[in-house]
Write a structure and sequence with these properties.
The complex is a heterodimer of chains A (590) and B (86).
Chain A (H helix, E strand, L loop, with lengths): L1 H21 L7 H8 L4 H12 L2 H14 L4 H17 L1 H7 L4 H9 L2 H34 L3 H17 L7 H25 L4 H5 L11 E4 L4 E4 L4 E9 L2 E10 L3 E4 L4 E4 L7 E2 H6 L18 H15 L16 H32 L12 H9 L3 H37 L4 H19 L7 H13 L2 H10 L5 H23 L6 H8 L2 H18 L8 H9 L2 H8 L8 H4 L6
Antiparallel strand pairs in A: 1-6, 2-5, 2-7, 3-4, 3-6
Helix pairs in contact in A: 1-16, 3-10, 3-14, 4-14, 4-18, 5-13, 5-14, 6-14, 6-23, 7-8, 7-19, 8-9, 8-16, 8-17, 8-18, 8-20, 9-16, 9-17, 10-14, 10-16, 13-18, 13-22, 14-15, 15-16, 16-17, 18-20, 19-22, 20-21, 20-22
Chain B lengths: L1 H27 L2 H4 L1 E2 L2 E2 H36 L9
Antiparallel strand pairs in B: 1-2
Helix pairs in contact in B: 1-3
Chain lengths: 590, 86
Amino acid sequence: MSEASVGAIAFVTLLTIVVGTRGIRVARTPDDFMVAARQVPPGLNAAAISGEYLSAASFLGIAGLVVSQGLGSLWYSVGYTAGYLVLLLLVAAPLRRFGAYTIPDFADGRLRSTALLRTTTALVLVIGLFYLLPQMKGAGITLQWVLGAPYWVGVAILGVVVSGNIAMGGMKGITFVQCFQFWLKLCAIGIPALVLLMATGHDPARNLAPDRSPVFTSATVVRMPETTGFTLARPTQATVTGVLDQRRLSDQRVDLCACRYVADAGTQIGFGAGAPVPTSLAMEQLAREPWDAPFLAAGTNGAHPLIATYGVIIATFFGAIGLPHILVRFYTNPDGEAARRTTLIVVLLLSTFYLFPAMLGVLARLHAPELYLSSDPDNVVLALPSLLLPGLPGELLASLVVAGAFAAFLSTSSGLLVSVAGALSHDLMRGGVTSFRWCAIAAGAIATATALLIDRFSLALLVGWAFAIAASSFCPLIVLGIWWRRLTRVGAAAGIVVGGGGCLAAIIATMVGATTGGWGAVLLGQPAIWTVPLAFAVMIVTSLLTQRSLPGNVEQAMLRMHLPEALSRKAYGAVGPSSAFDRASGFKRR
Amino acid sequence: MRAQLGLSLMCLAVALAVTVSFPVIAALVPEVSRMTVAGLPVTLIVLGFAFYPVLLAVGWFYNRQARQLEARFTELVDPESRPRDV
């Protein structure tokens, strides 16, 4: 079965490299990118944006979290979509008219401060790294699942392919690749979801009825991937091969009571149809709320689920504005009005996509509940097709899923690495193609090395953290920068440092396991709930205190961002819709 | 600009009010999350399907209003450069 999947991975990777490297000739600078993209209609452009946006977290992570932690995990998919609505409402058109390619560019153009440029560049690196890690992890577990290769193999392959490809000049302005990858991802998750839905004769009432623990719908052999503690809801019989509670058994029928057991790695337990599905102790501890409650306790050890849910909502709703690889895509729109139309189509495309991870998660919970015994539920989407549909159809669906998953890793990590390497070489060093190449390789190497350490964190959780940092640093900067004349450079820098720094510190504390439960776990595990308001507050208060350092170009900048195109064309002459504020206003940075 | 900001904030408030109220309701009235519609849990229906049309509707309404605001503003300042599609 792995041949088809390997072929699928090779196909997606080669296609990305070939089209990517051919693209260098047509697109070398952001300006070429933009000129080439001026003919891009909103529909195509929106698909490209969505193609870059939908990452490992969306493709694998959400369904995995649904299986292991419950329906509340769907807040992630709602939040990732709503993030684009918030972007549409608050920043899409003005940001397009301003004409900055990156967030550091925006900060510099609006507030004229080199120190701020440095601060924002450093944060682009942090957010980019946090977002790259889950893509690397996704590649690691996918190859682990397809080939049985060690985790680091997939991580290393993705790291080499992506940074090599970018260093050679690919993936710059490849609207068509991103667009193709969106439709590939949509098909790769939609077709399996619909086929499996039909194949299993979906009967939701059977297992999803509240207050009932799931049961096996047919006789099932569960193989413990590692030493697992589990509990049973009621007594049952099972056939055990391996070590259960330190007793070595081989194909023996045993009576299990409604209590705790520990099975060693590799133990196989055969349950009959109608037997209760065991709950692993780790999961039980995480999911104190019922599976169908709309709460989310990822990253917080199950403490205060309502607060944790709002933490995720704030992070995802306001985080999309501040993601480093999203902004540049807006310049493929000819004007502010087109930017708005494109963003709305993105919301539509994302809404369609996110129907399917939810569907797969529920199907897995219903029909393959043994999947949530495994320690890493991020495998659910990969494993489900061949579990539910044995034989050739299941294998073909599985390869389709693998292809989609790789498209997700490649497109998102390429976009991120371009932003990170661009920020490094353009804003911190002298710039130039050679420095861009070395920065791409260095950033790729750092991300690969770090990814080897984080395989125990869920994909959706890691991406959620990247959103939280973006929401508590760049979101206030961009929103206030667009709508508030009195923002000063000191205020902006203070807000970014306090909000982004606080958020990062909280997340690192959670990652090293500094908290065990209670309020500490919630406030550190889902920090957006306090860091986002804090960042806004610090930015506003500090700005009001430092009104003397107000940049002199505020009125011009505001005019450029908010004047409808019909008027600005007249005021500035027909310079074309894409003239950046820097160029139009005659300022030069260095 | 003030009108644009007002419109944005109003749309944001509507979208947030709809989505953000759901966890509070479910926490105050736990029965809500235990209900099922056609055999599916309410949480799945709301988070998995129902929110997306709401988000889209708010976005569509905003785009229409924003375009009209800009057209009105353009006409006020300079009637000659009125865009033809509005």
